[in-house]
Amino acid sequence: MVKYPTGSLTPYAKENNKPFSLQNKNKHKKAKSSVNFSDRGMTLEQQINESNKFYLIQDIAVVHKKPTPVQIVKVDYPKRSRAVIKEAYFRQASTTDYNGVYKGFYLDFEAKETRNKASFPLKNFHEHQIVHLDKCLKQKGICFTIIKFVSLNRYFVTPASFIINAWNQIDKSSVTLDEIIQNSYEIKSGYRPTLPYLDVVDKFILDRN
Amino acid sequence: MVKYPTGSLTPYAKENNKPFSLQNKNKHKKAKSSVNFSDRGMTLEQQINESNKFYLIQDIAVVHKKPTPVQIVKVDYPKRSRAVIKEAYFRQASTTDYNGVYKGFYLDFEAKETRNKASFPLKNFHEHQIVHLDKCLKQKGICFTIIKFVSLNRYFVTPASFIINAWNQIDKSSVTLDEIIQNSYEIKSGYRPTLPYLDVVDKFILDRN
């Protein structure tokens, strides 16, 4: 690691400023080295984060990704340098990854990618995510998932109720692409925002009234 | 540290399962060793977390504290043991600590303690918290702060608009207790929930209609 004259790690740290994700570590690097035309080389998480930044700056909505929950055990406080966490563990999250507010509505959603071409395996969802979405639905939140079929380059905004129902069927281990098409709104990736998922939220709001 | 036969740190970890907070580390221990009558020995954060747990279990509201944002640099994967984060840094948060959904409304708030007896110093708020509360207000979220005067054992639910206005006055470094009384609803700590702040949210909802 490069140590800067002040002993600070800040310049090094800045390069790594994005939320850590084990699965996306390599994709991440790939995305950096390639020129970024719309969704090319971006993970779904990056596309959603970009979109949220756009929505935030334009005062359209306030949606943030929740930080990875970490249980911190040991912290060092080096002189003239910022605190370094020396021992910590990943904790189980109790919610979905994204929530926020849009036109007075509470939004809550989870983003999932699959390399499959004809179905989406339900094991991609963790039980706590299903339970959380169900709890938020009871409180009249607008709850959904954004599913990306990476190989097909197709994006679906699927109501949480459909996913919860599928999850609760004991004999069902996946939902087919056809089922997703029938129960979702498809969105196309674009430029500003990268992924215009609020267009679908507008439809959910209309359906509600 | 106790290493268990499997090499797992899980039993040790479980004791530390609560979100880490530098300031509250010692208070935390104190709270554990004392019998817990209502708010006695609990920090404001603990009181709110307890209340949120109650609201969640009773299907009254879904409100969670956001995890501390951490930028992870190095992770070890020991055999037969869970991943250990070996190097990480605290990141600047971009939101408040708490948000969630209640009866279709988006809630967003920050909790602050002071040992002062006659005023609340505005430097307790960080700029990003004020900016975030303002952004959420524009999206019609219900935004507020819960202020605890520790020495007085008094709790106030204060609309974010009041705090933002005070913060934006250049010559103002604190708000007096009187100002807080005039612009807030006072709540009393109790048993179930520990801090019934949703009673005030109900008033905010009524005021709105």
TrEMBL record, chains A, B:
<feature type="binding site">
    <location>
        <position position="110"/>
    </location>
    <ligand>
        <name>Mg(2+)</name>
    </ligand>
</feature>
<keyword id="KW-0233">DNA recombination</keyword>
<feature type="binding site">
    <location>
        <position position="97"/>
    </location>
    <ligand>
        <name>Mg(2+)</name>
    </ligand>
</feature>
<keyword id="KW-0963">Cytoplasm</keyword>
<comment type="similarity">
    <text>Belongs to the RecU family.</text>
</comment>
<dbReference type="GO" id="GO:0005737">
    <property type="term" value="C:cytoplasm"/>
</dbReference>
<feature type="region of interest" description="Disordered">
    <location>
        <begin position="1"/>
        <end position="36"/>
    </location>
</feature>
<dbReference type="InterPro" id="IPR011856">
    <property type="entry name" value="tRNA_endonuc-like_dom_sf"/>
</dbReference>
<dbReference type="GO" id="GO:0000287">
    <property type="term" value="F:magnesium ion binding"/>
</dbReference>
<keyword id="KW-0479">Metal-binding</keyword>
<feature type="binding site">
    <location>
        <position position="129"/>
    </location>
    <ligand>
        <name>Mg(2+)</name>
    </ligand>
</feature>
<keyword id="KW-0378">Hydrolase</keyword>
<dbReference type="GO" id="GO:0006281">
    <property type="term" value="P:DNA repair"/>
</dbReference>
<dbReference type="GO" id="GO:0008821">
    <property type="term" value="F:crossover junction DNA endonuclease activity"/>
</dbReference>
<comment type="function">
    <text>Endonuclease that resolves Holliday junction intermediates in genetic recombination. Cleaves mobile four-strand junctions by introducing symmetrical nicks in paired strands. Promotes annealing of linear ssDNA with homologous dsDNA. Required for DNA repair, homologous recombination and chromosome segregation.</text>
</comment>
<keyword id="KW-0255">Endonuclease</keyword>
<keyword id="KW-0227">DNA damage</keyword>
<dbReference type="InterPro" id="IPR004612">
    <property type="entry name" value="Resolv_RecU"/>
</dbReference>
<protein>
    <recommendedName>
        <fullName>Holliday junction resolvase RecU</fullName>
        <ecNumber>3.1.21.10</ecNumber>
    </recommendedName>
</protein>
<keyword id="KW-0540">Nuclease</keyword>
<dbReference type="Pfam" id="PF03838">
    <property type="entry name" value="RecU"/>
</dbReference>
<feature type="binding site">
    <location>
        <position position="95"/>
    </location>
    <ligand>
        <name>Mg(2+)</name>
    </ligand>
</feature>
<keyword id="KW-0234">DNA repair</keyword>
<dbReference type="GO" id="GO:0007059">
    <property type="term" value="P:chromosome segregation"/>
</dbReference>
<dbReference type="GO" id="GO:0003676">
    <property type="term" value="F:nucleic acid binding"/>
</dbReference>
<feature type="site" description="Transition state stabilizer">
    <location>
        <position position="112"/>
    </location>
</feature>
<dbReference type="InterPro" id="IPR011335">
    <property type="entry name" value="Restrct_endonuc-II-like"/>
</dbReference>
<keyword id="KW-0460">Magnesium</keyword>
<dbReference type="GO" id="GO:0006310">
    <property type="term" value="P:DNA recombination"/>
</dbReference>
